[in-house]
Amino acid sequence: MQHAIRISCNRRNLKVVRDFVADYLAGQQLSEVVVNQLILAVDEVVANFIIHSNAEDEKQFLDVRVDVHNRELGFEIEDGTVSGFSPGPYQEPDLREFVRVGKKGGVGMMLVNRIMDRVEYSTSGEHTICRLYKTLA
Amino acid sequence: MKITQHATDTTLTLALNGELDASSSVLLDTELSKPEILRTQKVLIDCQQLNYISSAGLGVFISHLQTFQDANVKLVFFNMQEKVRNVFEILGLDSLMTIVPSEADAAAV
Fold first, then answer.
1. In this protein, which residues make up the domain named STAS (chain B) (predicted)?
2. What pTM, to 2 d.p., does this model score?
3. How do residues B75-101 score in pLDDT, each as one tens digit?
4. Model ipTM?
């Protein structure tokens, strides 16, 4: 059974999404560390869509869906804007360089890619969709 | 996110309470950006009540680390919950930052 939530593009709604994911995962018998990792991965993608794609325009909405098939957990985050956040080919950043220059951002997708088994972005019409997959132990 | 401060002549302790995400991290950034913080010897971050950290929170610490090091200010984390420490470990930040178990350990750094 699929679970879904729609939020407006306000960063205060990040907590709403985290609680939604936590509620779903509560029934999956996962450790606290793994649950936190999965919540974090979704939080990072949603934050990027809210802040970078939609400039925190509360008139815009994101849809977050979660489902599990054969122990593979799948999250789908759909952004209804034309200029959805869609990173190019992923490259691991150099954290020591980030420290040296005092860089504040840029590690969110590093977390997502290290936590999830697969990270996929696609566009359909004026929508951008990010799908995250993780096989549960 | 609530931040409680305790200062001595040489040490500033910031106790973080709540969730440090893209919404709340600006509070922490404001505290760590105050010029007087560079006149202390050590900044201790009490993470006992820190229940969550995202890249925005990590980014605040990353962005100040070099400035602190240049000013000979030690940045030390203690009382970190396992799930929060795990986020530092995913990025390898536990090898770039000082994370110790207890306040006593932090005082001894």
1. 1-109
2. 0.94
3. 999 999 999 999 999 999 999 999 999
4. 0.94
CATH of the domain at B74: 3.30.750.24
The boundaries of the domain holding residue B15 are 2-108
If you count residue pairs, one on A and one on B, with CB atoms under 8 Å apart, how many are there? 92
- Delineate the domains of chain A, giving CATH numbers in brackets: 3-135 (3.30.565.10)
In A23-52, the residues whose Cβ lies within 8 Å of chain B are 32-33, 35-37, 39-40, 43-44, 47, 50-51
**Given an 8 Å threshold on Cβ–Cβ distance, is A105 in contact with B55?**
yes
Q: Count structural domains, chain B.
A: 1
Tell me the shortest Cα–Cα distance from A33 to chain B, in angstroms: 5
DSSP chain B: -EEEEEE-SSEEEEEEEEEESTTTHHHHHHHHT-GGGGGSSEEEEEEEEEEEE-HHHHHHHHHHHHHHHHTT-EEEEES--HHHHHHHHHHTGGGTSEEESSHHHHHH-
